[in-house]
Design a protein that fits this description.
Order of helices and strands: HHEEEHHHHHH
Shape: elongated
Largest sheet: 3 strands, mixed
Strand content: 5-15%
Low-confidence stretches: 46-54
Helix content: 40-55%
Amino acid sequence: MNPRKLLKELNLLDKFLFDEAMDDPENAKTMLDIILSQNTNLKHPPGVVDFKLLNEVLIVLIMPFDLFGYGLYRYTFQMKCEEVPELKLDDGATRIFLNTRGKHPELVSPELIELLKYMEHSTDEVSEACESERIQEMHRRVCQIRASEKTEVKYMQSWEERIMIKQEGIAEGRIEGEKALLKSLIEKKMAKKYSAEQISAMLEVDVSEVENIMKEIQNEKYL
């Protein structure tokens, strides 16, 4: 696991800060407005599930690298028929892949380029260099998030949870490895016609555990 950044060092490409920032509808709207080059209307009343609002699905992935290798800032995909390319499936699903390091500024708006640069480097310097007032206002809100003691505590807790999950995963992996080794040893002893009691004594393992593993090995042979 990489060393933990300080909260004030996080950029919007960091998941924690992005999630915190997008909890603010103003930030979410600003980002979508710039990405889609239009005025979006977020229809998500708190606590209400309205499936009529699911007519259009937009999936946006923002990455600090070019996933497809064409040097574009934005790649937009919609469902098309492979046999008839001009035939589209009108399911309302759109997937947009954004590359913060694109090389064709003529194909997107200057504001989108500023947004992508700001997301990768969410600093005062980058914000001040932006001509977009919307990005500058977003930066002010991001600074408030990073300065919040409540958010700092939440960030520390999320990091500690990640460490615990990783440690549990390592422990589980070690246990699985030990079980696999024990199973292999028991299988070799079984091939030499040793009884469960004899194997238990040789490997210093409880006889009931040896018997269970022996049954498991025998069942696998009949599969």
